[in-house]
């Protein structure tokens, strides 16, 4: 049996409701993303830049009113604000919660020949 997983992450406000008309800022890791933004893209090839702040509807980052994924080229910081611009979330570095980064690090660690219990 296979279960269905939503392909898009969802953001929530401080009372647990899907974030409506929110603001999402993406910036340099370990810096304030509102004052140190980085380029965010609408496509995985990193060719279609997205203007910041990114906006939300029903908890999803949206592009022209439609839920959309966004992409960056590396580690980043993140601030999420509600419609009244109150801070909902701040993370100084995406490595704290980025599953892709954690999987890559785990693969690298397990493939290391420096430890006899690991590697090929």
Which SSEs are present, and which pair or pack?
Blueprint (H helix, E strand, L loop, with lengths): L22 E5 L12 E2 L7 E2 L3 E4 L2 E4 L2 E2 L9 E5 L5 E5 L7 H13 L9
Antiparallel strand pairs: 1-4, 1-7, 2-3, 4-5, 5-6, 7-8
General description of the model:
With 120 residues, the protein is α+β, with helices and mostly antiparallel strands. It contains 1 helix and 8 strands. It has one helix at residues 99-111, and strands at 23-27, 40-41, 49-50, 54-57, 60-63, 66-67, 77-81, 87-91. The strands form 2 sheets. It has a 6-stranded antiparallel β-sheet, with no helix packed on it. Strands 2-3 form a two-stranded antiparallel sheet. A hairpin with a 7-residue loop joins strand 2 and strand 3. The chain is globular, with a radius of gyration of 17 Å. The model has no long low-confidence stretch (mean pLDDT 86).
